[in-house]
Every structure is written in C-alpha cells, then in structure tokens.
Amino acid sequence: MKIICVGRNYAAHAAELKNPISAEPVIFMKPETAQLLPRMPFFIPDFSTDIHHEVELVVKINRTGKHIQEHFANTYYDEIGIGIDFTARDKQSQLKEKSLPWELAKAFDGSAPTGKFLNKSIFTSVQNINFHLEKNGSIVQQGNSSNMLFNIDKIIAFVSSYITLKKGDLIFTGTPEGVGKVQANDVLDAFIEDQHLLTVKIK
Asked: pLDDT per residue over 39-50, tens digit each?
C-alpha cells in the first residue's frame, strides 16, 4: 500500500502559502508508516516546532490500474474518506529554500491519519462534497471538492500515467485554506458533510 498526495490543489490554500498554481498536479508520497494506528495519538516529532494540520478528502483505490483514462477513473474507487496531512512547516520551508524534496517534512511516521471511509454512492456528486476540520471544537478548515483545481478523476488519470495504482492505495487529494499549527493537548475532529469520521489527539 502506498500513500499518494496532491499538493496545491485548492487555489486559496496555495495563495495562503504564497505558492504558484501548477499546470499539473503536484505529487508527493508518504510511506505506509505515515498512517496512524486507530485511536493512537499523534506525537509531535522532536525535529519540528511548527507542525500544521491539513485536512483532505482521501480516495481508496479498489483495483490495479495504469494509464487509466480519465473517463474510466471513477471505476477505480468506491470509497472516499478523510485524513490529515501533518506537515512540518519549518522543515518544509528549509527544504524548499534549497529546492529539495518535501518528504522529510511530509512523510514522517504518523503524518497521515485517516478516518472511516464512506461508499461514494451516498454522494449525489463526488465533485460536490463538503468537509471540515475542527480544532478543540472550533472549525479551522472548510472545503468542498468542487473547488479542487484537479478533480478526483483527473488526479487518478494523471498519477496512473506515471505510477501503477493498486488496490488499497490511498490518494490524499489536497487541502483547502486554513491550515495552522497544532500543539500538545489539541484535539482534531474531521468531518465529511455532517459525519464525524476521525479524531486525532495531539501529544
């Protein structure tokens, strides 16, 4: 199982970090060890003093595919969930200044918790899904899949032209604006529409 992530997929988020909009999806990877075990807290790593939350819709691939055409991409996933792309923003800034890859800031252990997955059939359209993140009971991020620069089918088609997708692979589809720092004792709760699907306690 691999975790594929899309960066800068919401214009407002790219703007808040002063990043340019890309003509193609910005892709990076996280290892399987980035997943957080159920009910386990997230421990702030000792190499960072600026860990940010980035809530994202997550697509679970249901079969192997390569060079998937966009109009067939919808047959390669049945479930959509929610996850948090924890980012060591200070480390990422250092890496970007040196034009180095982001993985040390993005792919560390526990940096990709995911919640329960929902069958996509419950949604009227996967291109109109509301989701949000609460920190200590207050909403800090809100998004809708209609605001993605590259929708789910485009992402699957693009990624599969470079990387074979396999059953169980996860695709983090990008975060909306409102990312921010987490601190010890924070509690994060993630929702799709009105369904509470993920809780992460920060240690």
From this structure: 899 999 999 999
How is domain 3-201 classified at the CATH fold level? Fumarylacetoacetate hydrolase; domain 2 (3.90.850)
Domain residue limits, the chain: 3-201
How far apart are the C-alpha atoms of 104 and 19, rounded to whole Å? 19
Q: Once rounded to an integer, what is the mean pLDDT over residues 156-162? A: 98
* Among candidate residues 89, 25, 83, 26, the one with its CA nearest the CA of residue 52: 89
Q: What is the 3-state secondary structure (H, E, C) of 33-55?
A: HHCCCCCCCECCCCCCCCEEECE
Rounded average pLDDT over 108-137: 97
Among candidate residues 123, 124, 130, 164, the one with its CA nearest the CA of residue 147: 130
